[in-house]
């Protein structure tokens, strides 16, 4: 039935004010209003229509993406949108495009690694999109190991130029988004060679295509690397391959904030740490954490609404069957994901603050918090994207068979999202970075270096080694201090055990390789502690709105106790809690699921996703699922004709042959 809210009863059950929760989710009233306005703008614009993208072939899809990107840029200029609004417009356009890499990596790389003069030269062009750039780091042979890149940039004293070259097949740049077909320029990462001496990997700005006819410049071989996972998904992006054959660029196109090459060919390293060459990745990883909460919230919104609409079993005397959301198993799979979406939102907010803080410090030449920023962005990127990717797939299963239909929106969301576990650093490789950071912090404990920031708890090593949880009743697990102490003790003990085992190796690097599997578990425990702590800290703030804080408290407890339940082995083997305390946590968890149940629909409404952005019949705001699914099926191109193409050619002769055979 059109116009009827099939979820109205569910919405009436809510015990909190949804409009206030929308503001908490968005981060502020300003952020909410902005997001609401831009999402409606995109939803009402026919150019941004997206319900047909999964039926388009690659070329049509790519053209459709170019059209949307150009239209987005036109609307941004016509409406005079600021950066925050433009970023939202990109989010709601919901189709990866070359502009992501231009604005998300090319421009930030120049801002972060270029000198003032370089910024003045390149940013005005990039900001007006008079040039379009990408981020060309990964090669066919190396992605994770950035120091292993093979592309060379050799200084030519005579001409005052660098010569970019791809000496081997494996040195071909491979993967950069926007590179394949569109970018005119790239920030290229290459080994700096001066007088046969290798100074390691540095960033260079290279022009790839002519600004007149868009053809590749001499010496440049360039193209798309081919179809990726899924139908539409990331295939709207021209991930590319690039080879240089002794391509010359002026010396001033090496990004020289971190180190410089003089006219005489002298290499000068400034006081800025070498790691700033990796700064763009830190910036993007922080954005990816925020995006993880968005991606997960979409899947959870779809699965929650559909779980309230879908009924199976339990009808008595002609009454309705049971809503599947009332099954405890459904709740135990769905509600921790709902809680995780909120948890990642607040972790993302905090990470944004951390990133802003470190950037301000860097401007003031204080580099002390850079390692913490690297470890936190790497670790939280890894944790949140892994959970979001698995969570989207779980939401598909939570929707049963219909979840597998394209029109559920979930297959497309999954296909477009999962590379987040790989790009901007493989999730395992990033956790190993966190582990190195933790081991370093522990090794410095004895030298009197007090750990700070997210590792401060390691400074209370003795106390945490003595810790025994004093939980005696299920409700004790609702106390934030009880939860934080248990998570701190577990993380500290896991890291300290790794450090102790590492000390048994004469070569620490051998030990690190041997113990890598344990180390990533310790790193995961540390990252989970950060997310739990940041959620709890958020709840210590003033949160207005009827019942809003109470709901968030429930979600926070679910997030923490679900993790405790899932990783019960860690908590028991480290001796932080007893089996009895573990089962009390589980008992509390069940009670928390019951508390969420009446609020579930309102909690996903608070994400404020438009039907356009969700792109899901199962997740429709009005819950009018069945008529719309039925209608949608008839729109499939296969249903354009009663008899499909190919029937007369291939199937009819076969049927006729069978008939003839039967008559003989
Ligand atoms: C029209 C509309 C407009 C709309 C606007 C649209 C805007 C859109 C914005 C959207 C943005 C999102 C786009 C997302 C798209 C993603 C596309 C994907 C891009 C990519 O994937 S780019 C390539 C990414 N590659 C990687 O991530 C590689 C991973 N590997 C590494 O990072 C490193 O090599 C390493 C960290 C694994 C190891 O490096 P290395 O061997 O050199 O290092 P060591 O282990 O020896 O460490 C040396 C010390 O350096 C520290 N370190 C390492 N990394 C960093 C860092 N990043 N920052 C600071 N410090 C770092 C280590 O900790 C070591 O320190 P120590 O003290 O010496 O121990
Ligand atoms: C959709 C997409 C978009 C991308 N966009 C860009 C872009 O715009 N620009 C760009 O430069 N790059 C881009 N990339 C490349 C991306 O950054 C790399 O693929 C990523 O960093 C992983 O590196 P890799 O492919 O070398 O994986 P590998 O390092 O080869 O990983 C393979 C396996 O080895 C494991 N492994 C590797 N090293 C270790 C280790 N030390 N210890 C334990 N296990 C290890 C990994 O966990 C993984 O299981 C993109 C990739 C994708 C998928």
TrEMBL record:
Main location per the UniProt record: other
Keywords of the record: FAD, Fatty acid metabolism, Flavoprotein, Lipid metabolism, Oxidoreductase, Peroxisome
Presence of keyword Cell wall biogenesis/degradation: no
Cofactor(s) essential for the protein: FAD
Domain Acyl-CoA oxidase C-terminal: 480-656
Domain spans labelled Acyl-CoA oxidase C-alpha1: 278-439
One Gene Ontology CC term in the entry: peroxisome
Keyword Oxidoreductase: yes
Ranges for domain Acyl-coenzyme A oxidase N-terminal: 17-132
GO MF, one annotated term: acyl-CoA oxidase activity
Annotated residues for binding of FAD: 138, 177
InterPro entries per record: ACOX_C_alpha1 (IPR055060), Acyl-CoA_ox_N (IPR029320), Acyl-CoA_Oxase/DH_mid-dom_sf (IPR046373), Acyl-CoA_oxidase (IPR012258), Acyl-CoA_oxidase_C (IPR002655), AcylCo_DH-like_C (IPR036250), AcylCoA_DH/ox_N_sf (IPR037069), AcylCoA_DH/oxidase_NM_dom_sf (IPR009100)
GO biological process: fatty acid beta-oxidation using acyl-CoA oxidase; lipid homeostasis; long-chain fatty acid metabolic process
Gene3D superfamilies reported for this sequence: Acyl-CoA dehydrogenase/oxidase, N-terminal domain, Butyryl-CoA Dehydrogenase, subunit A, domain 2, Butyryl-CoA Dehydrogenase, subunit A, domain 3
Entry annotation: catalytic residues: 424
Location in the cell: Peroxisome
PANTHER family: ELECTRON TRANSPORT OXIDOREDUCTASE (PTHR10909), PEROXISOMAL ACYL-COENZYME A OXIDASE 1 (PTHR10909:SF250)
Similarity remark: Belongs to the acyl-CoA oxidase family.
Name of the protein in its database record: Acyl-coenzyme A oxidase
Biological source species: Lupinus luteus (European yellow lupine)
């Amino acid at each position: 039935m059109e116009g009827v809210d099939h979820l109205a009863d569910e919405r009436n059950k809510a015990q909190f004010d949804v409009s206030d929760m929308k503001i908490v989710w968005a981060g502020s009233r300003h952020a909410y209003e902005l997001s609401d306005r831009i999402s409606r703008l995109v939803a009402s614009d026919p150019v941004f229509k997206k319900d047909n993208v999964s039926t388009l072939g690659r070329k049509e899809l790519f053209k459709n993406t170019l059209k949307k990107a150009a239209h987005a840029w036109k609307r941004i200029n016509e409406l005079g949108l600021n950066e925050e609004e433009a970023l939202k417009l990109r989010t709601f356009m919901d189709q990866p495009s070359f502009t992501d890499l231009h604005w998300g990596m090319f421009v930030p790389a120049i801002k972060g690694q270029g000198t003032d003069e370089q910024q003045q030269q390149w940013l005005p062009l990039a900001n007006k999109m008079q040039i379009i750039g990408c981020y060309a780091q990964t090669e066919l042979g190396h992605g994770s190991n950035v120091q292993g890149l093979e592309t060379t940039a050799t200084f030519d004293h005579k001409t005052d130029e660098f010569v970019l070259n791809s000496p081997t097949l494996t040195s071909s740049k491979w993967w950069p988004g926007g590179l394949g077909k569109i970018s005119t320029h790239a920030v290229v990462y290459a080994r700096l060679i001066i007088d046969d001496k290798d100074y390691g990997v540095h960033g260079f700005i290279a022009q790839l295509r002519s600004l007149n006819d868009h053809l590749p410049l001499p010496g440049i071989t360039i193209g798309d690397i081919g179809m990726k996972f899924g139908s539409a998904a990331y295939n709207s992006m021209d991930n590319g391959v690039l080879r240089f054959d002794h391509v010359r660029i002026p010396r001033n196109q090496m990004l020289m904030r971190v180190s410089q090459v003089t006219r005489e060919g002298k290499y000068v390293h400034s006081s800025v740490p070498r790691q700033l060459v990796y700064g763009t990745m830190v910036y993007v990883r922080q954005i990816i954490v925020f995006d993880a909460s968005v991606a997960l919230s979409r899947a959870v919104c779809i699965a929650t609404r559909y779980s309230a609409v879908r009924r199976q079993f339990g009808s008595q005397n002609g009454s309705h069957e049971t809503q599947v959301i009332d099954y405890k198993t459904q709740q135990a799979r769905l509600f921790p994901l709902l809680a995780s979406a909120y948890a990642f939102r607040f972790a993302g907010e905090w990470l944004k603050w951390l990133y802003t803080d470190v950037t301000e410090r860097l401007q003031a030449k204080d580099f002390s918090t850079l390692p913490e920023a690297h470890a936190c962005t790497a670790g939280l990127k890894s944790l949140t994207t892994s959970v979001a990717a698995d969570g989207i797939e779980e939401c598909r299963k939570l929707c049963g068979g219909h979840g597998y239909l394209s029109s559920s929106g979930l297959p497309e969301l999954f296909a477009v999202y999962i590379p987040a576990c790989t790009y901007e650093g493989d999730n395992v490789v990033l956790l190993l970075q966190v582990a190195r950071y933790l081991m370093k912090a522990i090794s410095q404990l004895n030298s009197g270096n007090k750990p700070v920031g997210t590792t401060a708890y390691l400074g209370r090593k003795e106390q945490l080694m003595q810790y025994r949880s004093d939980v005696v009743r299920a409700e004790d697990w609702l106390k934030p201090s009880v939860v934080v102490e248990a998570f701190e003790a577990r993380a500290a003990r896991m890291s300290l055990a790794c450090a102790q085992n590492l000390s048994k190796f004469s070569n620490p690097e051998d030990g690190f390789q041997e113990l890598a599997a344990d180390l990533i578990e310790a790193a995961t425990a540390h990252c989970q502690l950060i997310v739990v702590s940041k959620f709890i800290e958020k709840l210590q703030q003033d949160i207005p709105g009827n019942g809003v804080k109470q709901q968030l408290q429930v979600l926070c407890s679910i997030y923490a106790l679900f993790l405790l339940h899932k990783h019960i082995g860690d908590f028991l083997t480290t001796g932080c809690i007893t089996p009895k305390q573990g089962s009390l946590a589980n008992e509390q968890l069940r009670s928390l699921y019951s508390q969420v149940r009446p609020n579930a629909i309102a909690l996903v409404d608070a994400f404020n996703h438009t039907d356009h952005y969700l792109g899901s019949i199962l997740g429709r705001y009005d819950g009018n699922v069945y008529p719309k699914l039925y209608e949608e099926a008839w729109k499939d191109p296969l249903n354009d004709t009663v008899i499909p193409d190919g029937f007369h050619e291939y199937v009819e002769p076969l049927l006729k042959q069978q008939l003839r055979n039967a008559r003989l």
